[in-house]
User: What shape does this take?
Amino acid sequence: VTTFGRIAVVGASLAGVRAAETLRASGHQGRLTLISAEPEMPYDRPPLSKQLLTGEWDTERVWLRKPDHYSALDCHLLLGRRAVSLDPVRRTLRLDDDIDVEFDGLIVATGAEPRRLPATPSLPGIRYLRTLPDALALRSSVEHDGRVVVIGAGFIGLEAAARSQRRGAQVAVVESATRPLERVLGPRASALVAQLHADNGVDLRCSTAVSHIEGDSDVTGVRLTDGTLLATKTVLVGIGAAPSTAWLADSGLHVADGVMCDAYCAAAPGIYAAGDVARWYSTSLGAHVRHEHWTNAVEQARRAAQNMLLDPGEQVPYDPVPYVWSDQYDIRIQVLGHWLPDDDVRVLEEDTRARRLVELRGRLGRVTGALTINAPREFLRLKRLVNAATEWSSAAERTPA
Ligand SMILES: Cc1cc2nc3c(=O)[nH]c(=O)nc-3n(C[C@H](O)[C@H](O)[C@H](O)COP(=O)(O)OP(=O)(O)OC[C@H]3O[C@@H](n4cnc5c(N)ncnc54)[C@H](O)[C@@H]3O)c2cc1C
Assistant: This one.
């Protein structure tokens, strides 16, 4: 075991908090500093596009942990303080109040931030959804205006569309691809999701792009490239996220759409990264990958923190089976495994009316993934086959279509 005197964790959201907990659980007894740019108690993001957006949950319910948890961890939690630079050789972080934090070990967990709509002035009605204040502002804006245009039919945009529609707002979604989430879910699931939103009264416009936002001092509408004007005062931009790495620009760390890490989540000696910000080498794919999913932030934070405390020969590569879920209306979409378009797919159940879909996916003779819509029990059954990397032929026998 390697002992570190002082460990700093930059970013106190899901990955940062879980890393801090793992460090303590794995025996780190020295100083532990957790630094968050946000002033709020560390909170969880999935409810921001779900229960918080409808007002079912209040803000305290999204906190990751109660405030006294951090003192029990003997963790020095710095809220509302941003790391602005890193010197990996002197092992020092500079914060935005010009204070330097010295460390022996560092975990970078600065997550991601929304991609901005290009060439667009920032008008008050143009909203993004990443933070607690974003969610509260979007909620009150949709409530006040009674309508919203969502740009981008990704998970967050579609979840926000579903919740806003449920609250009685008129909702339009603009997507440049032919169907929502097709690249992520594949064709069958994507068609089902499109139908789900159409049936619920969402005006889903695919294969069309936004030309520009109309309005001088505030938004009056969204002009599409086909000339259509969607009148609205509220626009939610959900066109993806980019890793929060600007503060590392002069650090000498290798940054390329994420902090580049080896298979053990190390970016440099004693410096690890985890969560949405980390791009690590997946030994099973033979490539660097980055995931923006809740389960990845949890699992990678644990692995990175454990590896940091282990001697090099004892460290374990991080090579998870990725998992993501999304809740839209009363339906849960669940996806396990890396999905490649030429994977083998076996459709075990497809019922458009009941909005159910169960797919098993495989590659090179093994079960490698599963996708279910509105079938949580089936998902658990298929998960066992994926985790055991079951032979494709024997799995087919055990899962009659
Ligand atoms: C609205 C929404 C809904 C989601 N729903 C789902 C879902 O249903 N299912 C699912 O699998 N995933 C979901 N996700 C994704 C999941 O929440 C993320 O993968 C997860 O939050 C990643 O955690 P993280 O700690 O790596 O990064 P983040 O949560 O982005 O946290 C990073 C933290 O670091 C801070 N920070 C950034 N730069 C600095 C700096 N220089 N100094 C100090 N602090 C800094 C940020 O302010 C932030 O607090 C959702 C995400 C969002 C935004």
Notes: Residues 294-309 form the longest helix (16 residues). The chain has ten helices and 27 strands. The chain has a mean pLDDT of 96. The longest strand covers residues 344-351.
